[in-house]
Design a protein that fits this description.
single chain; Aspartate Aminotransferase, domain 1; three-stranded antiparallel β-sheet; elongated
Length: 142
């Protein structure tokens, strides 16, 4: 995946020097000086830590993006409280929308199955509520 911070740096004329793990302290300083708080940098731990506490879901820290691809393999072929079988990640995303009131995209749309994609491009309060809703919905799956 392309690094959005490096792309922004290129647009602003810094010629991409803000990418790479060895330059992370400089990158953070540059962002701070320019008043930029990208959600992919500012809130990844909130999402990663929250999702990792939900039994049945997996998530590796996203790299350079505000999208999280959440593994849901353990939910496949399980039943919802309404007796619907979660046949694939599209069914999981639909279930989370209808029952958890959380929007996501099935991973199959991106060639990544069984995952669903969420975005952390919002405030920490909204993310915390979304994680709470996902956790409650997943807990209801048998």
């Amino acid at each position: 995946m392309k690094d959005p911070i490096a792309a922004l740096a290129n647009l602003l004329g810094t010629k991409g020097w803000l990418s790479g793990a060895d330059t992370e302290p400089y990158r953070q300083d540059w962002l701070k000086r320019h008043g930029i708080t990208p959600v992919g940098v500012a809130r990844p731990n909130l999402v990663v830590d929250g999702i990792r506490q939900i039994n049945g879901l997996t998530l590796s820290p996203p790299e350079g993006t505000f999208y999280a691809y959440i593994g849901c393999a353990s939910l496949i072929d399980r039943k919802t409280p309404k007796e619907a079988v979660l046949e694939d990640d599209a069914a999981v995303a639909t279930y989370l929308l209808n029952e958890g009131r959380v929007a996501s995209m099935s991973g199959v749309a991106y060639g990544l199955s069984p995952y669903f994609r969420t975005s952390s491009a919002t405030g920490a309060e909204v993310l915390s509520e979304a994680i709470r809703r996902i956790k409650a919905a997943v807990a209801e799956v048998e």
